[in-house]
Design brief:
Elements: H1 2-9, E1 15-19, H2 34-43, E2 46-51, E3 62-67, H3 111-131, E4 160-163, H4 164-169, E5 180-186, E6 189-193, H5 202-215, H6 230-233, E7 236-238, E8 243-245, H7 248-261, E9 267-268, H8 283-290, E10 295-296, H9 300-312, E11 317-319, E12 327-331, E13 346-350, H10 355-365
Parallel strand pairs: 4-5
Antiparallel strand pairs: 1-3, 2-3, 5-6, 7-8, 8-11, 9-10, 12-13
Length: 376
């Protein structure tokens, strides 16, 4: 039941098959339990009862299906009309000629039942494909279970604390300001962010949280209070120019490593070393496929690409203050696969989008909790 519950939270479908509830004492049934009734209520699922003999089964075997997949109502008409010359039930008691229990054959669903189940599952998948919903659809929202909010809203007498994890679940932005601080939880780490009037609250609040954790039995010896934003976001930020760039030390080490690999040293190509962060490589990926696991001298074309990648490090800066370009640049940045030879995944499109369309595009691309999704 926990698995069905979880699948439903992600927008998926489930089916539960079990013998029909006899509806009388002393015969038990899972369908008569409070837990199963609550599962049906939470997942907005339904039940349908039918007789397997109508669908090709050897005996009547009353059965109930529960779930949230489509077309369950097709089973409602599959009820035994009684024995006749054209409709008989086989014996299910005793043993067959080989000494096996006759009930053994009842473990297999009859063909008609399998057909209706398959039709319902396919119908659900077709609906998800058309609507973009479902657990992996382009409009998948993730778990729909209600979360108990722990954030504290600001009031006229106190400042608030916004837990950023909750904001991501709700796909909301949290602009830091004078009335509240941001708090991010990651496993056993806690990060507090404050600006303006709340900048001075981050350090004492961090100490209070750590003290309470130690009072509960945890250890929190590593407490840091600083203005070093680079450690948190992974980029150096130039506030005056509105620019994001790689930390200088990391950039120089990356550049030196690429120059060294492009200088002609023998390289051992491993699939685990493949990176798809840039769209420049093409022959690098090709050589990885051809020479995987080998220690070889890199091709001249590979050395040229590594050198170009090293020089491109100097341009790894985002100037957020610059106006949005009318050209849309996209890349798949991947190697060869079953579809094509890889590389050449660069697309530059000149668009005549309006200001409102650009604003909507930027808003959607920066929405917390979402990643880039491919839609045919």
């Amino acid at each position: 039941m926990a698995l069905c519950d979880r699948i439903s939270l992600y927008g998926g479908g489930f089916l539960w098959e079990h013998p029909k509830d006899p509806g009388e004492h002393p015969f038990p049934s899972i369908f008569a339990t409070i837990e199963f009734s609550e599962l049906l209520s939470r997942t907005e699922a339904s039940t349908v009862s039918f007789d397997q003999c109508v669908l090709g089964g050897p005996t009547q075997k009353p059965t109930t299906l529960a779930g949230n997949c489509e077309d369950l109502e097709r089973f409602a008409h599959c009820l035994c009309s009684g024995l006749s010359a054209q409709h008989v039930h086989a014996n299910s008691l005793g043993f067959d000629a080989e000494g096996h229990f006759l009930t053994r054959r009842l473990q297999t669903y009859p063909p008609g039942m399998c057909s209706l189940i398959a039709r319902g599952l396919i119908s659900s998948c077709v609906t998800w494909q058309a609507s973009g919903e479902g657990p992996t659809g382009i409009f998948a929202q993730g778990p729909t279970a209600p979360l108990i909010p722990r954030s504290l809203e600001a009031s006229s007498t106190s400042r608030g604390v916004q837990i950023l994890n909750e904001a991501v679940e709700d796909h909301k932005r949290v602009p830091l300001g004078d009335d509240h601080v941001g708090l991010y939880l990651h496993v056993d780490d806690t990060l507090l962010l404050g600006v303006g009037d709340c900048a001075g609250l981050a350090a004492p609040l961090m100490e209070e949280i750590a003290d309470n954790m130690e009072a509960a039995g945890f250890k929190a010896p590593d407490r840091r209070s600083c203005d070093e934003v680079t450690k948190v976001v992974g980029y150096e930020i130039d506030v005056r120019q509105g620019a994001f760039s790689l930390p200088r030390r990391k950039a120089r080490l990356l550049q030196a490593a690429l120059f060294e690999q492009g200088s002609g040293w023998d390289l051992e190509f491993r699939r685990a070393a493949e990176t798809r962060a840039l769209s420049i490589p093409f022959t690098v990926y090709h050589m990885m496929d051809v020479c995987e696991g080998q220690l070889v001298h890199p091709w001249p074309s590979v050395r040229r690409e590594l050198t170009v990648m090293a020089r491109a490090v100097d341009f790894m800066t985002l100037h957020a203050s610059h106006p949005v370009s009318s050209s849309v640049y996209a890349t798949d940045a991947m190697g060869a696969d079953d579809v094509d030879c890889g590389g050449f995944g660069v697309c530059v499109t000149q668009t005549q989008a309006t200001r409102d369309e650009f604003r909507a595009l930027m808003w959607a691309g920066e929405e917390p909790g979402f990643a880039i999704t491919e839609a045919d």
